[in-house]
Amino acid sequence: MRKNLLVNEKLSGYLFILPNLVLYLLFFIIPFLATIILSFTEWGLMLNPKFIGLSNYIQLLKSPVFYKTLINTLYFSFSRVVLTISVAFGVALLLNRKIKGIVFFRTIYFLPYVSLLAAVAIVWNWLYQGDGLINYFLGLLGIQGPAWLVSEVWAMPAIIIMSSWKDLGYCIVIFLAAFQGIPKRLYEAATIDGANWYHKIRYITIPLSTHAIFFTIITTIIGTMQAFDQFYLMTKGGPANATTTLPYFIYKVGFEWFEMGYASAVSMVLFSIIMGITIMQWIIRKKWVFE
Fold this sequence. Notes:
- By secondary structure, the chain is mainly alpha-helical.
- It has a domain of 185 residues: MetI-like (MetI-like fold, Orthogonal Bundle).
- The chain contains 13 helices and two strands, in the order H-E-E-H-H-H-H-H-H-H-H-H-H-H-H.
- The chain is globular.
- The two termini are 42 Å apart.
């Protein structure tokens, strides 16, 4: 009787997760395997795929545009992750206080994260115009504002700032949850011992929040390296490929040049880079994550 009950419970569990497994198979596993196969073919959508071996990968390694997009992707990802996490950590410290109206401020900071990226990009595109609000305030300070989105130097920093602002609320929520899980008695003991706010943050808050920092680093890197919308909506990868990243390059190769096999090869390279960075972070986490 007990054995039958356990079997029924397991069967019920499998039935509950079956829809997710089917969707995961249809929309991830099968497309992923298809991408691997197509990366070894020449396919222009109209004709049947033609097997060409490693030619797509060899062409990729010889392409200067690929290396430029790779550098752009790493630059964008590293800068965005550092800026987002550092600012979010500081803001979360300020929001982790019992002051009047704190719920309002927490809501304000989280709103951009749940806002439609297309709408956010349109607003920031206006802000970055030559006569936009940002250059207006810079002018009040006596600073000549740059042509943000049409400058090879400033286009990528402009998108980094916008993207970090957009995702700030996500990291803030994670950090707030970590801060509120730290026992209050540790801060009370530190106060008795004469510790100031810096010592509390340095020796209590940061060490006991490393698991949250690790989680946000991993998820932000993965999301950042797949970013596409803001580049498509704001700069179209320009000027002069200054904001062309690997995801946007995949789009151009696949849906503008109709070289699906080549685009699949770029996709596999991007997947390998993300996987490699994630594995590396997972390996070194034991050296700095407090468990």
